Amino acid sequence: MRLSGIMFNFKHCLKQVTSPLVRNVCLPTQKHIPRIYGSKKYSTCLNFQITGHQDKHLTRVLFHQSANHQLQVFNIRVLRCFHTSQPKNALPGFIYLIFKPILRVGAIVIARISRKWWSKLSPDQKKIILSQIKKHQDKIAGITLTSIGLAYIYYFLHLETCPITGRQKFIIVKPNQLNDVTQIAYDNFIEEHGNQVLPLGHPAYKRVGAVVKRLIDANKVYMEHNNFKYPITIIDDPLINAFVFPDGRIFMFTGMFQLCQTDDELATVLSHELSHTLLKHVAEKLSNKTFLEILYIVPLMIIWFLLPDLGAIVTQSIIFELPFEREMETEADEVGLKLMARACYDVRVAPLFWQKMALKETQDQVGPKMEEYLSTHPSHENRANNLESKMKEALDIRKECNCLPLGPLFIPRLNPLAQLFNVRPATPA
């Protein structure tokens, strides 16, 4: 679950290993990572490279996070890592890590140098250059069209149809590659928050576990496409935060319970996050970002050639990155609503929850509100309105699943917010 706004938290580290002694170090009792389904309580062992000179892995984990530090709700969206413990993958990973930033930065540098060079030319010199370009425009057009054609063929050959939504998506990241980077991100997360993991007997596990189990059991038609066990880990931290790793591992911070005062609200959050995993949004994001960053080299150079630095940065994000983010968030909202409906939760709470989030954001906001087109996520108000427009379909799904009829929407903790926003509850099923 994530808020509107752009704040990227990059964790960069570099581990250089010289004659390492590799040990499995098990976390002590307070760092046990509990699992609700499929296995018993166990200790998580992390591999540490013990050397005379030890830094950390070269890992970058990208979180989408609220610009308001008091309400930090984020989800892992992109994972890029380089792991030195797998020599067979080291060279390709190293080339990718080095080549990618060089390609992007190189394009920007060339564009800026060209801009300065062009500005110093006389009108006659500019006219000569433009005439030469016009003279060879057929060759330029041929090369451009050929490149676009090859890129389209490559893109088309890597399209997959989502079994849940029917939408075609571009996927070039292989499952084993996604598993590798997910595991590295998980290890880094546990390294940072391992001492905050609540013990298995904490009542929070029972509540979250019951909601997760109900969602999974009611949506086996979707869950059968993967073989995840959906282990749950709860972090004792006041951050309002929850997310699901691409392999199904669920993380929730205790601060989320302050906002999710009912199981219907908790189901709204968890169904949204589970939807990101079921829809393979991380793999799609990685694939799109990798492909588009190569495809957009020329447009990127044009943007940086024509616009000032700040304008180029903003334009680059608005055109190439942010629309994909918002589309995935909306898709996860809609699929999450269907997961809730099949599990017989009160789906009418979902749009009301996002209005509650909007109020919380307004209360905690410092400075002007960010426009949606500058954000990775739709605004809370638009998310609520979109879910309200899908309410009839969700209520029909509840009927098809023989759920008990819904009574009046009366939730004491939510009604003041409903009155404030003049919310009219949906018609009971």
From TrEMBL:
Required cofactor names: Zn(2+)
GO biological process, one term: protein quality control for misfolded or incompletely synthesized proteins
Gene Ontology terms: cellular component: mitochondrial inner membrane
Keyword field: Hydrolase, Membrane, Metal-binding, Metalloprotease, Protease, Transmembrane, Transmembrane helix, Zinc
Cofactor stoichiometry and binding remark: Binds 1 zinc ion per subunit.
Domain Peptidase M48: 207-389
InterPro entries: Mito/Outer_Membr_Metalloprot, Peptidase_M48
Entries under Gene3D superfamilies matching the protein: Metalloproteases ('zincins'), catalytic domain (3.30.2010.10)
Transmembrane segments: 140-157, 294-320
Molecular function terms, GO-annotated: metal ion binding; metalloendopeptidase activity
Superkingdom of origin organism: Eukaryota
Pfam family, one: Peptidase_M48
Record-stated family: Belongs to the peptidase M48 family.
Protein name per the record: Metalloendopeptidase OMA1, mitochondrial
Organism: Diaphorina citri
